[in-house]
Amino acid sequence: MKHRRGALLIKKILAPLLYRHRPVGLGPARQYFYLDWLYKTLNVPGAVVEIGCNVGGTAALAHKMLRQLGSSKRYVCVDTFSGFVEEQFETDLELGNHPRRRRSFSANSLSLTRRVLSLHDAADVELIPADILELDPASLPETISACLIDVDLYQPVLTALAKTYPRLAPGGVLLVDDCQEETDWQARKAYGAFMEELGLESRIEFGMGVVTAP
């Protein structure tokens, strides 16, 4: 905890320097894939949602693209803003995750993410500080055109899919990150379980699981 507070303080103080470029966590191919889907769903009604946004770098980039394309869609991000929930990570250890990932994304806060978004002219991105398992679905936009699910762990991914899929507009898409074959993350297993439960065909591209509205 002390280490987290120290790292967070440094990040806040040095934010204009550390985050002068958008801190996008997606690799180039996945970044392209996500932005391409935002373009494809530009005329689909509903908000754009991220479940798991870290410090908001991807949101800042995607938000700017939407505005440059003339879209005024809501952009909503849900995150704990403090890293993984301990009990959820413990469950993933049993599924094959590595202990070294325990503190990933923990040096973060709601205020730091707001600061990063403001630095990149994305202050109107809406932030919801919450564990997706505990979040009331009513807190999510009623209609979703595109959603990036990047929460890495099995149960949060499964829950995020269950809470966003009923709100997906016709023509909309849910993208689950970290679904490549060789990884410690358990997102692929959760995506597969969700698709099997609904009787849908799994489709993984660029390391992302794809769910489209019927």
What does this structure look like?
There is one protein chain. The chain has one domain (2-212): Vaccinia Virus protein VP39 (Rossmann fold). It is an alpha/beta fold. Helix content is 39%, strand content 17%. The chain has eight helices and seven strands. The protein has helices spanning 2-13, 15-18, 28-40, 57-68, 86-95, 110-119, 154-164, 187-198; strands spanning 47-51, 75-79, 126-129, 144-149, 168-176, 204-205, 208-212. A seven-stranded mixed beta sheet has the order 3-2-1-4-5-7-6, with helices on both faces. Helix 3 runs parallel beside helix 4 and helix 7 (154-164) packs across helix 8.
TL;DR of this structure?
By secondary structure, the protein is an alpha/beta fold.
CATH topology assignment:
Rossmann fold
Using DSSP, what is the number of strands? 7
Beta-strand content bin: 15-25%
**Helix-strand pattern:** HHHEHEHHEEHEHEE
- The residue ranges in which pLDDT falls below 50 over 5 or more consecutive positions are none
Question: So what's the overall shape?
Answer: globular
The main β sheet shows up as:
7 strands, mixed
* CATH architectural designation: 3-Layer(aba) Sandwich
Taking all Cα atoms into account, the compactness measure Rg is: 16 Å
What is the name of the CATH class? Alpha Beta
Give the termini separation: 45 Å
The number of distinct structural domains comes to 1
Question: What is the overall number of helices?
Answer: 8
- Helix-residue proportion: 25-40%
Q: CATH homologous superfamily - what is it?
A: Vaccinia Virus protein VP39
- State the strand order across the main sheet: 3-2-1-4-5-7-6
Round the mean pLDDT to the nearest integer and report it.
87
Secondary-structure class? alpha/beta
